[in-house]
Predict the 3D structure of the following.
Amino acid sequence: MTTAVSMRALTKRFDDVVAVDDVDLDIADGEFFALLGPSGCGKTTTLRMIAGLEIPSAGSLKIFGDEVGTLPPNKRPVNTVFQNYALFPHMSVADNVGFGLKMQKVAKDEIARRVAEAISLVQLAGMEDRRPAQLSGGQQQRVALARALVNRPKVLLLDEPLAALDLKLRQGMQFELKELQREIGITFVFVTHDQEEAMSMADRIGVMGDGKLLQVGTPEDIYDTPVSRFVADFIGRSNFLPGTIESPSTVCLTNGTRVTMHTDGDAGDAVAISLRPERAHLEVRGEAPEGQPSLDGLVQTVTFLGGSVVYHVGLDWMTLEVSTENRPGLQRHQPGDAVTVWWHEDAIAVVPR
């Protein structure tokens, strides 16, 4: 598969601060790739280096095999969509979309054709003469997308473009953006701090923390087999049950419970078992299936979230979060109920404590 973006030992320093630290990454042509992490982790700086808005302090950055680390933005086959859209308020939708082509002195009939094509692609046909102030947030975001796509970049860079939208509109735009990427087939590099957004859209995710690329994989891989507690905690929610490795197939939890599972560490290593709330099951104490790992506790709080019910279960040595589906016939528990939390052996992962 052709590599669209390739980084080797890519580093960016701002005085004494290392914003991006020795990153190695390949992004395939036609891939929807998400850079995910908290504020200040280096994901936007990485995107800006691809765009040419920041120059790497060290390392190699190639786009389709060509070294671009020191090239200006207009010499790279990329375009960027920013969070604030950066539309010209006094220009129409069509003029905003065609502005870059006009600056490149493209022929007027060619501009008109490509602008109409881009506007149709983002489903804004009929709004060509409107000003940005006459558009909703979602429509303004589509104008920014059309303006970026009209230049036919090989790589489209998106810096948290949905962050300013309300939840329902953002979720709708996530689906539309993924469908758009599939339709046009170019590489998308998408920066976000929202793990659900990344998981719902990306073919692969790169999780960043403190300037380092911590894990790269499909959403399923990263969610099911996180390589660290930071990744497990950042991608969704998780319970971390502290324990110690006894053997390659056994972890002894702090309370003495032994859990059978594969481990790569050495005997005596301090680890934590990552148990997702939705993969834990809750039963009246004594009614959990035999042969499955389980822990007894008392329900502390119950939170109704519409599609699910979240319980906090107090053990003698920690509190567990359990999320159950809200459906007819499912038993509800109340604060103070004596319960058993159990899980299937393949529902957990081991991470360094």
